[in-house]
Amino acid sequence: MKKLLFVATASLCAAVFGAIESSNVVGYQTKDIDAGFAVITPTFLDVGAANVDIANLKLVDAIGDGGSEQIQILTSGGANIESWVWITTDQGVEADGWYDINSWEPISHKVMPGEGFLINTQGGVKMSVAGQVKAGKTTLTLPAGFTTAGNSTPTGIDIQKIKIVGGLGDGGSEQIQILTPGGVNNETWVWITTDQGVEADGWYDINSWDLIEYTVPAGSAFLFNTQTDCTLEIPAAL
Question: Which of 140, 123, 120, 122 is nearest to 73 (CA)?
C-alpha cells in the first residue's frame, strides 16, 4: 500500500489531488476563511482514527482574543446554544486552541467526517488540519431540523454527487441554505427526486427548479434544513 505526502492549499487541491490513487494518503491542508459567517468542515482525519480532534483544527493569522473567532453550535431549531472561541497564549492560556466562550475551558470534541461548523470571524483567517484522507464514502445522518455538514475531502466535489437518501425529495423538505458573510440566508437549494417530474434526483433552485451547477470546494460545508431524519452521502476522495 502506498503512503503519499499530500500538501496543498484548498485552491490547489482539485488539480493535484485528482491524480492520486491510494487508500493511505497523509498530509495537511489549509483553507482560507473570509471575515463573517462561513460553514466549514475538516478535510483530514487524525492518523489511524475515524475522526479528528477539535484541537487539531488550528487557526493561522487569527486574533485569538477569545471572541474574534467563534465556532457556533446550533440546536435543531437553528438557535446558537454554544460558542467555542480561538484563544492564543498571548491571552494567558497554556496552548493556542478552542475554548468555551464563557469558562475558557479547553474544548474536547471529536469531529466526525462530514460534520460541519458555523464559524464567525472578525478578520480573514486560515484553518489548517493535518492527518489522513478518509477512504471510502462518508454517510452522515441528518436529523430533522438544522444541521451543518459538507465536503470533508481535500478536493472539490460536484454538488450533485452529494446525495440525500431516505428524504422526501419534494422540493422543500430537504434544503441547503446559502449564507451571506453577514449570516443571512440569500439562496436555497432543494433536493428533488424524479417522482416530482425532474429528470434526475438532485439539488435544484427552490424557485426555478433549475439544476444547480456548483463544485463544493474542499472543506466547505452547508447549513442543511430537513423536515425528517435522512442520510447524506458524500463521495470518497479516493
Answer: 120
